[in-house]
Amino acid sequence: MPLPDNRRINGPRETYQITSFLTPQHNDADVPSTGIVNDKGLRKDTRRTDEVRPIYLKAGVVQSANGSAYLETSGTKLTCAVYGPRDYAKRHQFRSSGKLTCSLTFAPFSKPQRFTEIRDSLSTEYSNFIADSLMSAVCLDAYPKSQIDVYVNVLEDNGNTLSYAITAASVALADAGIEMVDLVTSSSLVFNDDVFCLDPDSSEQKHKDVYGKMSIAYLPSLNKISCLLQDGAVEVERSIELVNTCLEGCLRVHDVMKECLLKAPNTDEES
Q: Which positions fall inside the Exoribonuclease phosphorolytic domain (predicted)?
């Protein structure tokens, strides 16, 4: 007779999904099923189409990292940790400038469907875009033979994860004391022929009426776009309008970033 496994925690025979006991945050009747906004031009969460979600941003949350940041908004939570500058991994190769690497991962519980793959194509695409966006601001020439590693962990995903990851990574780099020419802020939107939605949540990104998405990484002090990612065809005039809308969203996020860094603890004074 096999011995019982006392270390295994056996759940009850009858289980229920936790969503059965949760009350909806918004009334689905506010938005008709045929459109992404209602008759008043409001979205499902009562935001206007050009309105971003409230953001909570804090720096210096990971003590073991050189710099870190935590970002939380409606249904989206992520952390970012920066390690470096440290010796380049391939010491036999000389680099006159530093190297910046980025890795974004989704927690298994970050989405309604459990993540089984450790490294999927979406994480790889986001990681490359974040690295390209940050390299335009980081002074890599000041760190020869060194590398700076950025790690982003998405705890909960409710849309616009890429833009929030860039924002948190930029704050974490500043918290680590990395030399930068400017902070990198980011914003995204989804669109169709009639309407756009700035800072979309997951339901808006998957809406049947949406056929395009745009993400922008922006250097506000230099007034330069470091990276732009667009899915879906659109006319030139419409594209310019969408870019300007994204830039307005970037400026709003930039104010939150500056306030966060001003409130961040000064590690030099504490030591």
A: 51-179
- Tokens 């459990």 belong to 114
Helix pair 161-175, 236-263: axis angle to 10 deg: 40
The 10s digit of each residue's pLDDT in 94-118 is: 778 889 999 999 988 888 776 555 5
- In angstroms, what is the C-alpha Rg of the chain? 21
Torsion region of 84: left, alpha or beta (phi above 0 gives left; psi -120 to 50 gives alpha): left
Which CATH topology does 48-263 take? Answer: Ribosomal Protein S5; domain 2 (3.30.230)
**Model's pTM, two decimal places?**
0.83
> Residue 95 belongs to what H/E stretch?
none
Q: How many CB atoms lie within 10 A of CB 13?
A: 5
Which DSSP letter does residue 198 get?
Answer: E
What phi and psi, each to the nearest 5 degrees, are found at residue 53? -75, 150
* 133/169 Cα distance (integer angstroms): 10
Pair 148, 89: CB distance under 8 Å: no
Hey, is 249 helix, strand or coil? Answer: helix
Q: How would residue 186 be classed by pLDDT, with cut points 50, 70 and 90?
A: very high
